[in-house]
Amino acid sequence: MRLFSRVFSGVLLLLPAVSAVYKDEAYQNDWHHELIGASIPSSTFFHRPSLDAKASLIYTLTSRSILAAINPRDGSIVWRHLLGDRASSGVARKAEGAVIAAVDRDVKAFGAVDGKLIWETTFVDKVKDLQVIGGGVGIVLLENGSVVKVSGGKIVWESPAADSKDIPQSLSVQGNNVFGLYQQPSKGLRIATILAETGKLSSSSISASIQPLDKIYSSASVVIWTENSLSLVKFLVLGAKSSAISIPAPQDVVDIKFLASGKTILLHYETKDKSWAEVYGVDHVKGSVNSLYSLDANAARSAFSVTESGGETYITWTLPNGESFLYGSKSANVLDSYTSESQNNEDISILSAISEIIPKTDKKYAIRTFIATSSPGFHGNTFLIRNGKTVWSRPESLVSVTASAWVELLDPASEEVAEELDVEGHKSVVGAYVHRLFRHAHELITYGPDWFAGIPGRVMDAFLSNEIREERDGKWRDFFGFRKYAVVATKEGGLVALDVGRKGAIVWELSLVSSNLTDQWEGVQQMYEVSKGTVGVVTYGGEYWEVDAFAGRVLTREAIGGRAKSSTILERGGKSKVIMVVLEGDRVALLPQGSILGEPAYIVVRGDAGALNGLRVDNITLATAKTWDFVPQPTEEIHSIVNRPAYDPIASIGKVLGDRSVMYKYINKNLITIVTTDSSHSSATIYILESVSGVILYSAIHAGADTTKPITATMSENWLVYSYFGTEEVDGEPGAKGYHLVVSELFESRWPNSRGPLHSAQTYSALAGEIGRPYVLSHSYIFPAEISSLGVTTTKQGITTREVLAMMPWSSSIIALPKRLLDPRRPVDRDPNEAEREEGLNKYAPALEIDPRSVINHKRELLGITDIVTTPAQLESTSIIFAYGGDLFGTRVTPSMPFDVLGKGFSKVQLVGTILALGVAVGFVAPMVRRKQINQRWLATS
Amino acid sequence: MRLLVLLPFLPVIVSALDVQGTFAPSPLLPNPSTLPPSTSLTLTTAGTAKRTLIRRDNTFSFSDVPEGSYLLDVQCQTYQFAPLRVDVNGQGEVVVHQTFRGNEWRNKGEKKSYPIEIQPVRPVDYYIVHEGFNPTKLLGSPMILIALFSLVMIFVLPKLMDQMDPEFKAELEAQQRKGGANPVANFDVASFLAGTSSPAAGSAAPDGKGKKN
């Protein structure tokens, strides 16, 4: 143990504490939207976490397989767990002091208060349905038809299906009986009755013959299904000897939903423009169902909830415009109704609602309703409405962000005078001079008095280290450029601008799809900032949108002329940029339409047969011609392609060594990295290509790479970092097992001060094959955690050292690894010499440890992050980070410490105090010195 | 090794075991119940990765672990844990060893008992604290000590000289007139204060530090 600790701490010491989180800055600079996704209606409920708890929490399982407890007071997440790998179905049920959830093959019970796991069981097949009987005992219906009782994680009994061809549908529990409901291929409904105590099959009967079944629902007392494309609704009372009751469904119904609680059943009908409900009561003795009342039709896409409170059953009806009504179970009289002051969008539909109702004296009620909504582009946003007022909302639709673009805010200083400067540029020298004089005089008159008046305030603010008061907001950036908009696109077609510098506040929302075309939406291919404040969106379906990034307005919308495969942005000088889209059939389109390509372009596209093609795009005709292709080995397939970030400034073309010699970086903006995997031989191969000529500059094969685990790579400057899980063999013996992080750096030549074969060339062309061959240095490290995504920091000039950002899904965090730590020049098997120490190189240690101080999200837990994007701030030291894909997280880091800005710890009071103290000291010492000097002269000569 | 890769696909033939353990109390963490509910454990080898969470009774269990050699890691927000090597062999035994990252896999560490007992190595501290103004630390810095010493020399040494034997003093003065000036008596406080290794620079040091932060 002692030896181990020593090794451990030795490694930790090597990690320099850069871009660490300061205690007083945590939660100030960074922000986090904890998102869970769209709630599954049947697995969402209010529940008292413990028997003696005063208030209940909202528990929900979402389509992202996240089980979460939400505080209904403020909408904060109490606890949450990611249960599966993006499985879209699952069941959650309440139990005493616990919540039991089934996702995929696992059933897990969590403590309702603290979210700690109580027990878990993995079954041989997927779980179809789950019911809870007293004392936290679960009854599980599996996809193979078996019914299993689980208590405390142990299987009590297992009852196999009567017929293996039956399709299990759902499970109901009534007292001591468990009903397994199966659909038979021969169009029958089989109900298997099993005793909950013993697991003995007491009866298995085909209770009803059914026509093609649309949907089936079962509660404790009744099973309901629809037949013949929603034309017939049938009820069957469970545990009673009676046959199915059938009622015809109303005309033009597009959807029927069922809700039940105790003896009350609610049928919710939806037509294209109306929705209403019919309420039925169950008579167990007769085995019949009788209609209690029906509600008059109202607006479509509403939601009902059936709630039991104090022995009474209540029904709440929430309409898309925010209105809600409360009914009892006996009659259609409105007990209470609430109107909404908020003007909701017409296109909102309410997916589900759950309510908590507390009757008060004199016929008043306290109602809290948790609703999940859907509008075009945004799916699953949730709201809590208390007595008709929206208390809080959660932007759950942003869980499915697939693309993002940074939008630079406008500089107030340069933007206002840009026009004036333009005028001056077109005048004669004298005219321009006069114009400028007038402009300055005008500015002095307009802004001068305010500026002078503001001086004392500003000085005081600066003196007391107050936050600099934002003088401007909206589209005007702050002084340090920490504020930027990240425009993100959801999978469903919504665009949202987030103010990354202001805690990720939502600035505007916009939908690219209209309500009647949601089915045809195929997603955003990519987004670009095409000019100041304008975002260009390319969709897979073949459309191009231009959106005002500050106001959230659609500027233009045009068809590209085919489905888009991939796209890129080209800087063609001047202010505007051109987007090049590759359509199906390798045709190329330029956007905005009418743009011209100044010179031929070379692009790389994925071929149809798993190959990679280099294409030359003609500048006049836009015709493409294949210049090269990259075909992987027959057993290999292309796993991913990585290129350098679009904005990747390189401050120095060389690396100065300790002896003042220079290793020249191999800099080529056309480098791409291709990762290919071979699952049959479990190996991964990395290729670095020159994308214009298609020449392979470097390749590395990793035998023993696990292709089932994530392999990620990122590039910047002249280096590449990638990670994979490896069990490589060294001389026939298994080598180190674990996640490997490999860094490869490209230099022009092996020797310092040498520029390789192209050193004398003034210019060179990749087309003529003159690209030189880089000298590649690599180091491989063992990294303790799985990495699902990599990113690199970017700064304005690229002077600041870079950091590699790695998303570690197991510990739900992002770590910032300084590039210096991964340097492939770290000396192996010897201590660094004087020159290397001067360079800051440590002895190579194969294992990297996770230094918690480098975890940029500190105590926050990030779930489901797929991408990490970065952008520079106005300060060279600072890089802004935004991570999306599940949760949204934003922060800023300073990889070389904040060298260009005073920290918060800098006390101006202290500085002034020190100067004053020194002044006093000088005033005190000066006469002494003077006296001494005089004395020395006079006394010495006497 | 090749066989191991195939093993997960043949769960019928191969025996599968449950791997269990507890988070044991230790001086560093007397009550493991304070660990956050998101504390998770992973058992990895080529082809499989099993993940489980800490349970309410501070135990954990991986179910149906096929034969093989695994790496056990703990992810926790509040404490760091050491990795373990877990071998599940054909006889239904689970053998646990301490392991070191980056070592060859056959290089086993200290053998541990089974069921696994997990204890943290150190608490996690995510933050660095900004260094503020600290007078005692300031006085302890070598620069200030040197400055204080030289100040004492300036003021105390002449007084000492006055109390010296008059003959010796006269001799010293004669020597001074003859040769170079006494560096101490001739000390120029003004230029000293402006100098680099002076008390002024020393007391300005905290601001310099602040700037760096």
From TrEMBL, chain A:
Domain EMC1 first beta-propeller: 20-396
Membrane keyword on record: yes
Annotated membrane topology: Single-pass type I membrane protein
Signal sequence, renumbered to the chain: 1-20
Pfam family, one: Beta-prop_EMC1_N
Keyword terms, alphabetized: Endoplasmic reticulum, Glycoprotein, Membrane, Signal, Transmembrane, Transmembrane helix
Residues in ER membrane protein complex subunit 1 C-terminal domain copies: 716-938
InterPro entries xrefs: Beta-prop_EMC1_1st (IPR058545), EMC1 (IPR026895), EMC1_C (IPR011678), Quinoprotein_ADH-like_sf (IPR011047), WD40/YVTN_repeat-like_dom_sf (IPR015943)
Subcellular localization, as worded in the UniProt entry: Endoplasmic reticulum membrane
Annotated transmembrane regions: 911-929
Subunit structure: Component of the ER membrane protein complex (EMC).
Family designation: Belongs to the EMC1 family.
PANTHER family referenced in this protein's UniProt entry, alphabetically: ER MEMBRANE PROTEIN COMPLEX SUBUNIT 1
Protein name (Swiss-Prot/TrEMBL): ER membrane protein complex subunit 1
Gene source species: Tuber borchii
UniProtKB/TrEMBL annotation, chain B:
Pfam annotation, one family: EMC7_beta-sandw
Transmembrane segments: 138-157
Annotated localization: Membrane
Signal sequence segment: 1-16
Major location (coarse): membrane
Cellular-component GO terms for this entry: EMC complex
Keywords for the protein's UniProt record, in alphabetical order: Membrane, Signal, Transmembrane, Transmembrane helix
Domain of life: Eukaryota
Keyword Glycoprotein annotated: no
Membrane topology annotation: Single-pass membrane protein
Name under which the protein is recorded: ER membrane protein complex subunit 7 beta-sandwich domain-containing protein
Domain ER membrane protein complex subunit 7 beta-sandwich: 31-146
